[in-house]
Design goal:
About 30% of the residues lie in helices and about 15% in strands. By secondary structure, the protein is α/β, with parallel strands linked by helices. Helix 1 packs parallel to helix 2 and helix 1 runs parallel beside helix 5.
């Protein structure tokens, strides 16, 4: 999977998203201009000790990103979309793009990709969810659709055992 952030503005969101990407073996694509330095303390703090393990790539513009990934199917998360994020089938190498916190993905880009625009349902006039929450919601749906390929799907207690483990 691939998460694409178009001009993210808040370092803590990007740090949290980076941590989610490491935990899911997802590549993070960052499209400039960024509202912060990637080396900024707030990004690394939010990403914890996961940040050095993050598979990331930075692009100088949206056009640069598109040129480096010709033919890539890019799902665009926006509150303006007609269909929900659960109504599409995500490929294992899907690109899911999110826009900057203050404005989202520009409408000029959205109208060129209408069929791939997706939304998270919300009640009433809620403007949007937090960016890192939105990424987690959509990414985990895409991963679920791909059967959580290569992911640990069973946990274990540290000090005790689950009742089922004791019977074996």
């Amino acid at each position: 999977m691939n998460i694409v952030l178009l001009e993210p503005e808040i370092p803590q969101n990007t740090g949290n998203i980076g941590r989610t990407c490491v935990a899911t073996d997802t590549k993070l694509h960052l499209i400039e201009p960024l509202g912060f330095s990637i080396n900024e303390k707030a990004v690394k703090k939010a990403g914890l000790d996961y940040w050095p393990s993050l598979n990331k790539e930075v692009y100088i513009s949206y056009r640069d990103f598109v040129e480096k990934h010709p033919g890539a199917k890019i799902y665009m998360a926006t509150t303006k979309a007609k269909k929900m994020y659960t109504e599409v089938s995500y490929e294992p190498d899907a690109y899911i793009m999110f826009g900057k916190e203050s404005a989202g993905i520009p409408e000029e880009i959205l109208v060129e990709n209408e069929e791939n625009c997706i939304r998270i349902p919300m009640v009433g006039d809620t403007r949007s969810l937090n960016l890192s929450n939105s990424v987690a919601i959509v990414l985990y749906e895409a991963l679920r659709q791909n059967n959580f390929e290569h992911m640990n799907c069973e946990g274990h207690l540290h000090k005790l055992s689950w009742h089922e483990d004791k019977k074996q």
